[in-house]
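Observation: inputs received (chain + glyoxylic acid).
Thought: call the complex predictor directly.
Action: predict_structure
Action Input:
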Amino acid sequence: MAPKVLVTRLLPPKTQARLLEQNFELIQWKENSSIPRDVLLEKIQGVDALFCLLTEKIDNELLDRAGPQLKVVATMSVGYDHINVDAVKSRNIKLGYTPDVLTDSTADLTVLLALGASRRIKECIQAAENGLWGKWGPTWLCGTQFTNKTLGVVGLGRIGEAVAKRLQAFGISRVIYSGRTKKSEQVEARLNAKYVPFDTLLTESDVIVVCCALTKETENLFDYKAFSKMKRTVVFVNSARGGIVLQDDLVRALEENLIGAVGLDVTTPEPLPPTHKLYSFPNCLILPHVGSATMETRENMANMTLENILAGLKEEKLPYSIY
Ligand code: GLV
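Observation:
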């Protein structure tokens, strides 16, 4: 009997075509929006494999609804804070994700945010589009540059390292980082990076990039106290998860001019409603969670997720496994 597989979105074209070639009893949500929770809870019943995105919460309720035949859950994302990993593991269900493949695209976008925020790109575009482009002026729309500046990376993993490497090419002369653990000498040597306490990173960085996972330890890590310690000119970029920042405190920090410029690819909630206060700051650049959004990367992510599903259905070790 063909295995029953639930896929929660339409996939990028090549992987979608590959999906349709499989001998699956396929249930697929094809709307241009994430699958509503009640529909997911209904469709999950009796499936052997779940192909999901970061928009779906994978918790006990969902796993109970699925039933004991569920063999594999594969998320098309590198982050997995939307999944109750213990709940999946305790049921002996295999769990896959998509590491490495989105490092370059996400690092590119993080750099784009850092450059965009520091060069006041939002105000520049608005000025050009709204007829505010006056005569060239010596200080008009001047931002800051990275030459001889200090970069603070919060979470020097794959993406953090790729961001630091890129920003060094833009003139960053010193890289400091904080996180759960000090990295190997090899990693530190590649960037000439130094492990520092979180407070040192806050006070000494000209540019701060958040590249860590959202965990109990990093949730709300950036609060008013943290923003207060930063340089008044700091460029603060978060391309990891919205939950790492206490967003109301970020709004307060911007209102009080405690920080120089902000670039966000992630917020709480997502989507961030267009009326949200954060949009009102000219020095706050916000993108709609598009870190990995290149066609090449998304095809790769979808394909890896399909590989995980195929291996899980065969009761084999997943090629890209969380545990
Ligand atoms: C994107 O945010 C991902 O986790 O893949």
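Thought: report the result.
Final Answer: The longest strand covers residues 150-154. Residues 295-313 form the longest helix (19 residues).
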